[in-house]
Amino acid sequence: MLATDDHFRLVEKAVLGDSCKSSQWRVASWARCLHDYKLDPSRAELVDLTSRELRTEAEAFDADITLATSELEATLMMIEGGGYSAHIANRNGVIIAERKSKDSAFYCSTDRIGAVWSEEVGGTNGIGTALKNLTPTSVYLSDHFYADLTSQACASAPFFGPHGDVLGVVNLSTYNPGVPQLAHRVIFGVAQITADRLESIYFRNTFRKEYMLTVNVEQRSPAIFAIDPDFRIVGATRNARSLFGIDEPAMGVRSLWAVFEKIRGNPTLDYLCDSLRELRPLGSGNVVEVSLRRPISVLTSMPPSLSAATSNNPVKSARPKFGKKVTTLAECAGDDPQMGQNIEVLQKVFGSGLHVLLLGETGVGKDTLTRALHYESERAAGPFVAFNCSAIPETLIDSELFGYSGGAFTGASKEGNAGRIVEADKGTLFLDEIGDMPLQLQTRLLRFLETQEVTPLGSGKVRTVDVQVVAATHQDLHARVAAGTFRQDLFYRLAGAVVTLSSLRERQDLSTIIANLMTQIDDGDKVTFSERAMKALLSHSWPGNIRELRNVLTRAVKLADNGVIEPKDLMLTPVRMPPLVLPPQPPLQAQSAPASGPAPAPERPVPAPARAGTGMRKSATNQAEKEAFLAALEASGGDIAACIKMLGISRATFYRKLKQHGLTSASR
Ligand SMILES: Nc1ncnc2c1ncn2[C@@H]1O[C@H](COP(=O)(O)OP(=O)(O)OP(=O)(O)O)[C@@H](O)[C@H]1O
């Protein structure tokens, strides 16, 4: 922090015009602080609102705050380790949402929910000055007006609503007098990108029922028009407004053909939807590339009885009629408040043109939740296509996902293959284990996500599709980005909403989940639990999450005598659990444990060797795991489905582990 006197002299000299070093925006802000607001740089008088005042300010935020907080989450993941926290302030400069940096040493305690950061109160500061000038603002250490604040740095960017008025400010701040200026500049860029993304999210969400024309311009934020079926412009992003000279009164009145030269003949919306097209802005020599997306509710394959569905009345009838019962969103939410909140955010983003990234341990229900979202959305009439990036050999991912034309390569089928992306047109594509997507294909996937276009191998024909992508992984994607094995821009493109699903041990509604599962398991309604069995279930740590719980319950229903499940039927003791959920054990012990079939449980769990280091224990567990895989493969006679069932793991985990243990050839 600067000495108060020194800082005061600095401010005074700059305002009097004696300092040639000060940038104009800062001098102008300091002058406002001194002359207009009569603030004293040596005495910061910051204001925190009462909870009642805060409630009023939060209500004054003219948009859905849950979308903004989900965005903050994604931003914080990208800059983790930098010591910055992320905030949303409303248009009055009051912080109404916060996501804290894990690096609490640099936490800016003045930047908390309820703090007022208008320039009139906080002097020159990121949020207040950005709001004053309606422009992104970086306030680095001694840029602050108050001497007390010169140990902190903030990067702030205002964001605007779909009708062009300012909604609030994204703010990233750190309490770190040693933060390098260059690093802070990068954070400033991130704040601006976050603000742009928020604008885009709110715009797409507001105009989701309209056609959406995106103009490809070399600008940071996209130029998008929302247009009605008569080509009237009903909405435009800030960038579209400034580039094409459109203001609010023109909305709903001006035709697209008053902005662009009309294409020959009578262009239909369908013509524009089918591919990337070129349009020439009126009075300009250069053409621009545009792409048009259909409204979310216009699904050509939707039967008439469903076409009138609105977002309040979601389409439900397209659930698969046969086979597996689809778990509902209400069942996914259970009674867990965190899960309920997650689902609320996901429902808002789903179908808005943004993609979704689901994180969470294996078996927490990422696949199940995605299916539920699909079948309770307006895409329900469209296809649900799941693609597991780790279950398909690397060499086949390209052709399987993006498709190929007949005879495109040696061994290709004569008819060709549309590819999973095209199959998912007008529906949902679930990209499971996205962390395993090979790097070179990540580039292709990114291109598709940006343009919604695919060109099947060997066909040369571009096909535009309308696909909601949900990507999922149990891996630490952030670490993969840092290690250079996952593209940062792809992460960002996928992260329209990033939601981390809680593990079963973190959930507060285990008994509800048990009750739900019992309704889904054959004969589950014919048994009850003894008190001791229920106690054992509730106190188990469930390393295998819901999948493990389901397996345990299914088996217990079969083993229960006289319709009552006792602790012995649960077989929760380590030796009888599938290998992947064993605690660390000496190799011999684990090797001798069979992968299936009931056996008398030992009195107590076998302890890990007292002096084994983490490395030793890891390799012992690894070895045990490999042995168990070999045993299961042998016992199942190479039947993958039986093997997976025996091991009690997901198909994705099965293939991942096969690869990890070098057993790939044994699986085919
Ligand atoms: N809310 C729920 N209610 C009942 N069963 C559920 C629920 N969520 C998940 N399950 C069941 O748990 C098992 C694992 O779920 P799912 O495959 O969705 O998890 P996942 O996170 O996608 O796993 P992985 O990362 O291993 O692919 C499945 O058998 C599924 O039916």
UniProtKB/TrEMBL annotation:
CDD domains hit by this protein: AAA (cd00009)
Pfam family, one: Sigma54_activat
UniProt KW Transcription keyword: yes
Keyword ATP-binding on entry: yes
Gene3D superfamilies: 1.10.8.60, 3.30.450.40, Homeodomain-like, P-loop containing nucleotide triphosphate hydrolases
Renumbered residue ranges of the record's region Disordered: 582-621
Cited PROSITE patterns: SIGMA54_INTERACT_1 (PS00675), SIGMA54_INTERACT_2 (PS00676), SIGMA54_INTERACT_3 (PS00688), SIGMA54_INTERACT_4 (PS50045)
Keywords assigned by UniProt, alphabetized: Activator, ATP-binding, DNA-binding, Nucleotide-binding, Transcription, Transcription regulation, Two-component regulatory system
The Sigma-54 factor interaction domain, residue ranges: 332-558
Bias-annotated ranges (Pro residues): 597-608
Protein name, as recorded: Sigma-54-dependent Fis family transcriptional regulator
Native source organism of the sequence: Aquamicrobium segne
